[in-house]
Amino acid sequence: MGPTISVADKPHHLQLPSEEEEEVLRKRNEVLERELGKSLEREERMKRELQRTWERLRVAEEAEERLCSQLGELEAEAVDHARAYRARVLSLMDQLTAAQKLLQNASVSLPIPQ
């Protein structure tokens, strides 16, 4: 015949804790609940801060896009001004050359600056 198990014997891990152990567990539970509350509060603050940071990033990216667009427009305008300036300089050079030819043809000599 095999070993017998008595129903009256409870395994150690199934015994109810003593009042002292209950009090220790209750206090530990209170501490853990407070820590959890603080942790959840920190998490909420961090979520709000992250949301504000994302919003600032979005605003900064939009501003960057506007600035890039404005810079592109200014660069195009600067190129147009440079082309117009170059065309004006070439036109003045052509006029000067024509005036010099007219003077040479009229046998008038220009003084050479020294």
What topology emerges from the helices and strands here?
Layout: H1 19-105
Describe this structure in words.
With 114 residues, this protein is an all-alpha fold. The chain is 76% helix and 0% strand. It is built from one helix and no strands. The protein starts with 18 loop residues before the first helix and ends in a 9-residue tail after the last helix. This is Response to low sulfur 2. It holds the Pfam family LSU. Keywords: Coiled coil. Residues 29-77 form a coiled coil. Residues 1-22 are annotated as: Disordered.
Total beta-strand segments: 0
Helix proportion range: over 70%
Please identify the oligomeric state.
single chain
The number of helical elements comes to 1
Global morphology: rod-shaped
Point out poorly predicted stretches: none
Strand content: under 5%
| Structural class designation | mainly alpha
What is the makeup of the main sheet? none
Distance between the termini: 136 Å
Compressed to H and E, one letter per element, the order equals: H
Rounded to the nearest angstrom, the radius of gyration is 46 Å
Q: Roughly what is the average pLDDT, rounded to an integer?
A: 88
